[in-house]
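Hi V.,

You were right to ask for the full record rather than a summary. Here it is.
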Amino acid sequence: MYPKLSDLINDIFGTNINLPIQSYGFMLAMAFLTGGLIIYFELKRKEKEGLIHAQKKKIVKGKPASINELVFSALIGFLIGFKIVGAALDYTNFANNPQDFLLSREGSFIGGIIIGAIYTYYLYWQKQKNKLDKPKEDITLVHPYQLTGSIILIATITGIIGAKIFHQLENMDKFIADPVGSLLSFSGLTFYGGLIVATFALIYYSEKNKISWKYLADIVAPALMIAYAIGRIGCQVSGDGDWGIINLTPKPEWLSFLPEWLWAYDYPNNILNQGVLIEGCSGHYCHHLVPPVFPTPVYETTICGILFLILWFIRKRIMVPGVLFSIYLMFNGVERFFIEKIRVNETYNIIGSKITQAEIISVILVLLGGIGVWYFLSSHKKQKVEG
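Predicted structure:
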């Protein structure tokens, strides 16, 4: 396992560098970047096809910087400087524990003041340079693809909030024991919680910007699938605990062509330091799982990669808005429901049966997806008859 990106680099090149970039965080960033690019180009395609349209918006030019803008920029600049300069002055501590450092009170007060002052002055200078004697209103045309950054930002923030909320509901005992630590920790995220909350946030945002939420949902569907597949690579590489149940079953003969680790893996040097000590190992991460477990992140990356290709192949062939996203919901639900059978997770005892939160939600998603396909196709057919 490579908890940090520098662990991989050092293993390949025999170096001894220490970068403050965790493998999971890096792959998560790659997931958002890939999803963002897909959304950007799909928004362009939908606009070119005349399905969504650019909107006229009023902007005011020539206004001087307001007190609120200056105070906000000073605060943001201070926080950035406080952490960046502090990280540079205490690099080893930052590189070894980047998450702990970022969420701590550690930093450089002087660095914060300097960067805050520079950032605030720059904003003031820019506003003064473009200031007019009499500010004027202009009409600008905003294309849907220009909203990609906002879409990703909203999805990220609301997704993390939703993922945190659902994780706490699933692990209430840990939350009660350490509520502040649980909420501020970068770990402990439930994908379905993020999906649900981010979906409602994006529906509101799309309608506010006069983009039909059904078209946006169809655009986002393949992006979500490939982003999830890439994110699971981060889980596998770092060994973040999203692995399967213990697997002591001999590998079936029909899978003999696959390496043993794809069937049962011990996650050496996992970032959680779970398992037993590795003999002769030195460093921060020296544990491996005994006995081995199913490497479920690999399975999910493979399955979701295939499902992404299917969604990508059919996206231009499905003409009824909302149907592609409904198919995504069914794909997602079926995939997650069956992977839960061999995945470590908290379970609920319902009518004598043990079931996970993800299994409950995945069943609901499959039902919603099926209903969605029927509803959107029926509505479209009815509109054609009436038209």
